[in-house]
Design a protein that fits this description.
This protein is an alpha/beta fold and 431 residues long. The chain folds into 2 domains: 3-96 and 204-425, Adenylosuccinate Synthetase, subunit A, domain 3 (Adenylosuccinate Synthetase, Chain A, domain 3, Alpha-Beta Complex), CATH 3.90.170.10; 105-198, Orthogonal Bundle (Adenylosuccinate Synthetase, subunit A, domain 2). It has helices spanning 16-23, 76-88, 109-122, 134-142, 155-176, 184-198, 206-215, 248-254, 287-295, 314-324, 363-368, 394-407; strands spanning 3-8, 29-32, 41-45, 48-52, 65-68, 73-75, 98-101, 105-107, 202-203, 220-223, 263-269, 272-274, 308-310, 312-313, 328-332, 342-351, 354-356, 370-377, 411-415, 423-425. The chain has a 10-stranded mixed beta sheet, sandwiched between helices. Strands 14, 16, 17 and 18 form a 4-stranded mixed beta sheet that branches. The chain has a two-stranded antiparallel sheet with strand order 3-4. A hairpin with a 2-residue loop joins strand 3 (41-45) and strand 4. It binds guanosine-5'-diphosphate, 6-O-phosphoryl inosine monophosphate and magnesium ion (MG). Guanosine-5'-diphosphate is lined by residues 8, 12-18, 40-42, 44, 296, 301, 332-333, 335-336, 415-418. 6-O-phosphoryl inosine monophosphate (IMO) binds next to helix 4.
């Protein structure tokens, strides 16, 4: 199978970056197809941490071509910073390793400003966005007024486009939110700077590059951002992001046809976390949740916010498996559960006195759901040095088996630490 789609099966931050980095040892291409710098994907190699927001997580492998496809919303200022930091650390040597689609939607500072102004104005009703301008950028794309990456290289038409965009944006910023308006000359100065810097990475048609790679049996990884429950249509709306985070989006965001890739790996934490507002039935708003947060270092890779923590939710995981067509799972951060005497796993909900086992798509219903747990024994042993499944204590093996049996999806990978080497392969990759 030349292509694998890697998706988050929960609320994001499941460990997608680590999995993509590890898989990239064998991949020829890694493609980011949606989302933007709201993502924070962490790679840990020889104890050294790299956090990527826009650049695909294959970048630490010099043989892997990293593609930013049309579906991404591209904060060009942050992308320049990310490239500079990688180069400074000797981690991006060849410009040819990165390709950016001319069709990707550009995020400029005013998208961020609008996102943040909106959140401030919403007060207690806020979504808890990352403030990275994601919503305003996708809105602009849908309204057919967006500036796309290719536009940055035709400056005269760009200025005219910007003038039109800023008329509306400044009206909103000034008159509606009472914020400072944006100065077009400052935006143009920024654009001039970044477009010169990013010109070597420009690719007119990344869809063709990916198509040829798949046809030529090259190994291609599609790196999802965010998680299934943050999907714009099928997540916990309105507490979601503004893109489709599901596996199907890999096709659309990259510009390839359905059926060209049919392996979908769902990345799943051994428990659950969520950043921002919205329903979370298995949340532990107590000492146990705090313990998970500390042991798992559950603080956002993008905003540094505390992540809300709770038990594994199999109702939600099965929903994610269904809506993504997940064909295998990677179970992450199992090491974090060492030392919990008992482990609870949610296998059903109680909704208005009824037991249900399907995820309710209405957010009002989800907010009223109470989790029904099965409890299994925990383990005390440290897992972080394990190399094989049989190195794990029996209770940890039983935890994995329980998830496999309940979901009826093979667990291909178990992760027992942030490092590349702390990865147990239960089935070979690209088999
Ligand atoms: P992503 O957004 O899905 O790529 O995930 P993040 O990078 O935002 O968050 C995952 C965090 O968990 C990062 O700090 C990783 O280094 C870390 N991590 C990944 N896998 C493991 C694991 O198996 N055990 C532990 N302890 N940490 C892990
Ligand atoms: P990765 O790829 C976790 C959440 C925000 C907020 C909601 C909307 O690292 O898993 P947005 O800025 O997208 O408009 O915010 O989505 N969110 C994430 N949570 N991981 C992410 O990405 C996220 N990207 C956005 O916290 O609740
Ligand atoms: Mg993250």
């Amino acid at each position: 199978m030349p292509g694998i789609i890697v998706v988050g099966s929960q609320f994001g931050d499941e460990g997608k970056g680590k999995v993509v980095d590890v898989f990239s040892q064998k991949a020829d291409y890694v493609v980011r197809y949606q989302g933007g710098a709201n993502a924070g994907h962490t790679l840990v190699v020889d104890g050294k941490k790299t956090i990527l927001h826009l650049i695909p997580s294959g970048v630490l492998h010099p043989h892997t071509v990293c593609v930013i496809a049309a579906g991404v919303v591209l904060d060009v200022e942050r992308l320049c910073e990310e490239i500079k930091a990688l180069k400074l650390n000797g981690l991006l040597k060849e410009d040819s390793q990165l390709l950016i689609s001319d069709s990707a939607t550009v995020i400029l500072p005013y998208h961020r400003q609008l996102d943040q102004a909106r959140e401030r104005a919403a007060g207690n009703e806020k979504i808890g966005t990352t403030g990275r301008g994601i919503g305003p950028a996708y809105e602009e794309r849908a309204s057919r007024k967006a500036i796309i990456f290719g536009d940055l290289f035709s400056r005269e038409t760009l200025r005219a486009k910007l003038e039109t965009a800023l008329k509306e944006k400044n009206f909103l910023l000034e008159k509606f939110y009472g914020e400072k308006p944006v100065n077009i000359d400052e935006v143009m100065a920024l654009v001039n700077q970044v477009s010169d810097y990013l010109a070597p990475y420009r690719c007119k048609d990344t869809s063709l590059v990916i198509h040829k790679a798949l046809k030529g049996s090259k190994k291609v990884l599609f790196e999802g951002a965010q998680g299934s429950l943050l999907d714009l249509l099928h997540g916990t709306y309105p507490f979601v992001t503004s893109s489709s985070t599901l596996a199907g989006s890999a096709m659309i965001g990259s510009g390839i046809g359905p059926g060209t890739v049919n392996s979908v790996m769902g990345i799943t934490k051994a428990y659950t976390t969520r950043v921002g507002s919205g329903p979370f039935p298995t949340e532990l708003d107590n000492e146990l949740g705090e313990r998970m947060r500390q042991i798992g270092q559950e603080f956002g890779s993008t905003t540094g916010r505390s992540r809300r923590c709770g038990w594994l939710d199999l109702v939600a995981l099965k929903y994610a498996i269904r809506i993504n067509g997940i064909t295998s799972l990677a179970l992450m951060k199992l090491d974090v559960l060492s030392g919990f005497e008992k482990l609870s796993i949610c296998t059903a909900y109680e909704l208005d006195g009824q037991r249900i086992s399907e995820y309710p798509v209405s957010p009002g219903d989800l907010g009223r759901c109470k989790p029904i747990f099965e409890t299994i024994n925990g383990w005390k042993e440290d897992l972080t040095k394990a190399k094989n499944l049989k190195d794990l204590p029996r209770a940890a093996q039983e935890y994995i088996q329980f998830i496999g049996a309940q979901t009826a999806v093979p667990i291909d990978v178990v992760s027992v630490g942030p490092g590349r080497e702390q990865t147990l392969w239960l089935r070979p990759l690209f088999s």
